[in-house]
Design goal:
mainly alpha, 2 domains, 81% helix
Length: 90
Amino acid sequence: MTNGNGKAEPRPPREIEREIEYLRTRLDRSLAELDRRRHELTDIRLQMRKHPAVFIGAGVAVALMLGGVGLPRVKTSSRNTNRAALDGRA
């Protein structure tokens, strides 16, 4: 703190210690809250219970992507088999 002439007034050591302890307690609480949130966000089971629609949508998207990749291969494979049969190679 400063007095009227711009010079810092000395604070009693006890006051400084109390402020340090208060700040340390606030920091500990903040860190504990951050740790709790981190655990919650990385808990897949909890997230599935809280947001089932997101996981269902993601599953459908993955299934469509896999089907989109696999379907052309199956069609190409069946076309090649049919051509080979028509050409007498099979």
